[in-house]
Write a structure and sequence with these properties.
Radius of gyration: 18 Å
Number of strands: 8
CATH architecture: Roll
CATH class: Alpha Beta
Strand content: 15-25%
Structural class: alpha+beta
Helix content: 25-40%
Length: 187
């Protein structure tokens, strides 16, 4: 029985991730994609957000590249997105998904004049139509990783969950420190 334990969050859309968190993850898990330009460039690190056993994950979206042509779409590590004309217009990198929280992500709102607006809208519509197939792939990947199965070139979900937990503790202590300093400053 292959029960899906994954669902899409209610606000289906594309999200960006806080660059400092990505950098923190990348320093400890080299399979987490990070580029210092994520802090300044228009084209951010983006993806869809899903929920697996009450933990949110961001599944990165990549633009089509020549190397993706040889990847079979039936693999659970990826999900290719094809236009109505059967042209590859994007790929969900399931094996590169990372744990996130709402305070680490921001939903992307593109203006209609933006050159990516049409493409992202089309990709999102296709993802929405293929939710069932995508959740099956993510569920398979998630279960395999939790059972310590090796998936070449994938993020280390177990390590990344621990890193997220530590990152949240650091954030809380920084927030507490900022609050203490602010209270001290005010009085």
């Amino acid at each position: 029985m292959n029960e899906n334990i994954v669902n899409f969050i209610d606000r289906l859309g594309f999200y960006t991730v806080e660059p400092s968190y990505l950098e923190h993850l990348h320093l400890q898990d080299r399979e987490v994609q990070y580029n210092p330009e994520y802090r300044t460039k228009v084209k951010p690190y983006l993806g869809i957000v899903v929920n697996c056993n009450d933990q949110m994950f961001l599944v990165p979206l990549s633009s089509p590249k020549e190397k993706f042509n040889s990847i079979r779409n039936n693999l659970y590590e990826y999900h290719k997105i094809f236009s109505k004309e059967q042209k590859l217009i994007g790929i969900l990198m399931i094996k590169k998904m990372i744990p996130v929280t709402f305070n680490l992500i921001s939903k992307i709102q593109f203006e209609k004049e933006n050159k990516y607006h049409h493409l992202l809208t089309e990709q999102l519509q296709i993802i929405n139509k293929q939710k069932s197939e995508i959740t099956k792939k993510i569920t398979t990947f998630y279960k395999n990783k939790l059972n310590n199965k090796f998936v070449y070139g994938s993020t280390n979900l177990i390590l990344d969950l621990k890193i997220l937990e530590n990152y949240r503790k650091i954030e809380k202590s920084c927030d507490h420190y900022r609050m203490t300093v602010f209270i001290y400053w005010v009085f």
